[in-house]
Every structure is written in structure tokens, then in C-alpha cells.
Amino acid sequence: MKRRDMLKFGVAGGAAAVAAPALAQSQPTIRWRMQSSFPKSLDTVFGGATTIAQKVSKLTDGKFEIQVFSAGEIVGPLQVLDAVQIGTIEAGHTAGFYYIGKMPALVFDTGVPFGMTPRQHNAWMRYGGGLDLMRDLYKQFNVVQIPCGNTGAQMGGWFRKEIKTVDDLKGLRMRAAGFLGSVFSKLGVVVQQIPAGDVYPALERGTLDAVEWVGPYDDEKLGLHKVANNYYAPGVMELGASLCFIGNEAKMRELPAQYREALEAACAEANLDMLAKYDAYNIQALRRLLAANVQLRFWSNDIMKALQTATAEAMQDFAAKDATFAKVHQHWKAFRDDQVLWSAVNDGAAERFLAANRG
Amino acid sequence: MKRRDMLKFGVAGGAAAVAAPALAQSQPTIRWRMQSSFPKSLDTVFGGATTIAQKVSKLTDGKFEIQVFSAGEIVGPLQVLDAVQIGTIEAGHTAGFYYIGKMPALVFDTGVPFGMTPRQHNAWMRYGGGLDLMRDLYKQFNVVQIPCGNTGAQMGGWFRKEIKTVDDLKGLRMRAAGFLGSVFSKLGVVVQQIPAGDVYPALERGTLDAVEWVGPYDDEKLGLHKVANNYYAPGVMELGASLCFIGNEAKMRELPAQYREALEAACAEANLDMLAKYDAYNIQALRRLLAANVQLRFWSNDIMKALQTATAEAMQDFAAKDATFAKVHQHWKAFRDDQVLWSAVNDGAAERFLAANRG
Question: Where does substrate bind (chains A, B) (predicted)?
């Protein structure tokens, strides 16, 4: 057979393979357990997990059911990756940057200070090679990752006192997680690791001066404005936080192709949906907070520049110690720089005009 | 039976109905034809239609197949709505603003000058009531709409001469479609309606002075920079253009619930995917265009303000003549104004810092 005929045969074979499912094979019933790293009280971010489960069920006519558990119901919120890796649960709903201690490069799966917007992050994942890079990292934990949500830019946090200069950050006792913590500490902030439930009383007693949380809609529920009412913007430290679905690799391989597609599609829709919900609800919550006497304040340009420099230094620190981090950072930064340029030329510039000319 | 018991019975009945599909009914094989309003040469925007068809096929194990046709293969590019309405084809891939002549309010389904970003548009659709409003409009054409893609902000267009002042727009012969055309004409632009294929020779001969098209990646293919090399930004006239899937209402009702879900999920993923592709490719194309001697120019603040005022006037013109337009515009504007404010406080402000401090 000539090469040309082989190719023709190959095409015909492919067509036959596509037609095969019409023989109506019945699909198996599959039940999974998925735990989120987030509490039920955050209907935005935890809601992403239920969105995925509901969509998957509908897409498979109820044959692939994922039972959703909130943080702590099976394992602790930050043990989700471990639990999926060893198969305690088939799937998890979490954020890569929680696992900075296991593998620092996973922070790029979620977002880093002075990083990408949700839109830029999606472009990096889908057409910039980001998803391949991230899946290579997660493979070392025997899990497959699918991006499944984004909070949008998070606010700068709640501060008991006004922060006018870079010096005002020195000695400040602030709760800030992971990579953010390492940036703030470069500016003299005394970073605290305390459980979420202890934040309110600590601010009230004055043993804590500041906390960074999410945005108006989520923050309002915690009532932080009652004990620290200087609310800082803009969210340069977190222009987006991308959530991820993670599935145990062996369990993912056992899924029929159709169910795997259902998972991917459900996560894509959850990705779109979560940001839309945050955008619609955050501005309403911000209005309520302002009516409750919250002081909306903006970082000075000097403070943002100091944070940007500290971020670059923290990146270099991690890159010097970790070749994987260095490789991912280089790839990520090239794409990010291009996207910032494109936004500065077109989309961002148009938004800038509208922000200045609201009429 | 008391009302309370009836409710309980209702719930129990609902649970039984959910369990029913486990009886393994075999799903029907369905073949649809879908025509796009876009040519195959635009792999970005036309590609959205093939993305939808491929995803739907995979999600239904090949049982629901949608055959995709490009502009003109069955009906003309702007006859897609008609063809779906009367059932010539089951589905279409198009943009609402093409049908401004049939129903002006459909422009809000796509985007209007000084309008919403793709992200804000998604928020309006999913959590702002926009989708319900739009589906009510499309219902009058017997079609169901599903948002399925966005180009992001489009560039300001190609101009043979530099446009320094508002006066430079007077008498300019420009190809600009639909609502955009009515805004430009308020500033003295002589808006031309000529087929896409005639644009290049008209610019070359000098019988046309300017054209607005899409963005660097799509525009580069047409080679417009060779005959009009002043390329204007930012895209205030089109901060986003949302594409839509439309399905014939009767045909949509015939679909099993699972197939309908597959369509919705496929469109959501196509929505996310198209913008990611544009963002990744546009900046690369812009670099190539700049290397080919294109003059990247920015609208002056005066020109943007004049365009914004003309847009507000055009909105009022349409609203005065059409109660539906007035109703949708009011709803849309309240949401848009809130979103612009939120962006000015947080996400957009963070992006603005990065644009100014790229280091």
C-alpha cells in the first residue's frame, strides 16, 4: 500500500470510529466525591463547586454524579491536594497557590501580585501554553487540573489605620497568605498566619492591624468593616485568583470520554460564571459598605511601586532556589508582558477613557 | 390534600423525575445545519461555530451532530436570523447588531460604542438580567439565543490620513456598519455600505478613506495596512462584540434536555475560548504590523469625547422612536454605569497601574 493510500485508509478508519457510538453503548453510572477548600458561606467561590457538579450531572443525564463537600467535611481545606493524590476523594476544588510549600510554581496556576487579569490568565491557559505547563506540575501529584473559576481582582484589604506611606507598613501585623505574605514582609509587615475564624476578634482586640480577604461581596459577610474600616484598592496584589478542579489521575483515566468532556465543559462554564457573579454582586456590596461608613482608600503610587519592586524580588528569591519556579516564571512573564502591552494599547485604554469620562 | 402536602408530593414527584434517566433511555440521533454569518477565512470568529459543533458532538457521544456552514453557503451572511426563523436551517452563528433594521434593541446583544467589556457583558447576561431581556427580543423571531463568543475590543480602524481633530472626520468616506455608522455620521463622516471584498480596492483607488474592521489578527489577513496605514486605538467604539448562537424555537424544544445542556455548555466554552484566542494572537499580529511600517495612532481625548457625545445622541434618537430600545437601553445603562465604577475602583485601576509601570 502506498503512503497516499494509507492516509486515505486512515481517514476512512477515523470516520468509522466516529460513527461507532451510534451503536448506543450504555454509559456507566459513576459517583464521585469532591471536596472544596472553601466554606459553604462563600456562595460565590464555593458555589463554583456546586455549579460544576450540577452541570456534569445534567450533561450526563444523571449518570455521572459528583457529591460536593465543603472545607473540612472530609479533610482540612488545605489538604485537598493530598486527599485527591492518594485517592481519599476522587476530586477537589481548590487553588494552586495554597500548595506553595509543596511546589512554589503552583502559585502561577492561581495568580501572583502584579499578575494577570482573569481574561489574560484564560488566554495564557488556552492559547499561551499555560495549561500544559500547569498540568505537568500537577502530574507530579497524580492529579489532572482544570481551571474552573476566578474571583477577579481582590481588594487590597482591611486596615485599622490609614496607610499613607511605605513606612506606615513597617511593623504592621497583617494576615496575608502564601506568596502575598512574602511580598508584604519585604516591606516590614509582620505577616500573621491565623485561622479565618480568629481574624475578627484579633482585629477587634487590636492584636491584628490588617487583613487581606477577597472583595466587597465576600468581605461584607465577615463584617470586617466593623473592626477595621479602611478598605484599600486597587487590587494590584491579586488581579485575579483562578480556582481549579483537580481529579485523581487514575480515576480520570477511568472516565468515558464523554464524561471527561462533560467535566471540561462544566469547568469552563463555571469559570465564566463565577467571575460574572462576582462582578455583578461586588459593586452592590461596595455600595452597602460605603453606606455603612467604610472608608474606601487608594494605595498611593509610591506604595504600589514599592509592592511591585518587592514582588520582583520575591520572584527572584523563589527562582534562585527552584528551577521549576524559574522556568514557569519566565514563560508566564513573557506572556503577561505582552498582554499588559495589548491592554495598554486597546482594551485597557478604552476602559481608562470610560473610567475618566463617566458623565 | 392540604396545600402543604401537595408541596411535599410535588417535591417527591420531582425527585422521582430526576431518577428516571437511570432507566437508560437511549437518546435520539439528531443532525442539524448551522450557518455562520462569518467567512471561513476568519478562523477566530468563524472558529467559534466549529468549536460549538465539536463540543456538542463530544458531549453527546456523537449523537447530536451540527454541520457548520460558512457565510453564503446556504443563505447570505445577514440572512441567518431569517433562515433560522423560518426553519431553513435549525441554527445560526451570528451577531445581534446585524439585525438593527429589524429590531434596533438587538444591538445590545452584541455591544454598542462606549459599552461594556466582554467581562461586563457576561456579568450583565448571567447576573444582571441581560439574557432574559435578550431572549424576550429573539422570541419574536421564534429563535432562542445563547451567547457564544466575544472578539474583545476592536481597533478604531484603518485611515489613509492621520486624524488629528474632530474636524478631520468631516467628509471622510468610511465603511462602518450599523449603529457605529450612525454615530460616525453625526460627526460628518460619510458612511459607506460596501461589500467586504470591495474595501481593499476602494481604499487603494482612494474612493474610500477609512474602514473599521476587527483587530490586528483578523485585519492583517485583509492586508488593509498596505493601502491605509494609520491604525487607530483604543477601541472605544466597540469595547466588545458578543457573538450568539441562535436556534429555531420549535427545534430547540424537540431537543432532549441533555442535548440542550450540551449546547449551553458548548456555547459557554466557545465564549471563553474565542476571547482567549483573540488576546493571545492580537498582540503577536500587532507586532508584525508595526514591523510592516503601520502607524499605530491614538484618538485624541477630544475626538473620543465627541464620539461619546454622538453615541449618547444616537441612543436618544433610537430610544425616542422605539419603546423597546428605550427599555433595554435604560436597563443596560444602569448595569454598565455600575460596572464602569467597579472597574474604576478595582480591576481597571490595577490594570492602569500596570500599563503605566511596565518596567
Answer: 154, 175, 212, 238
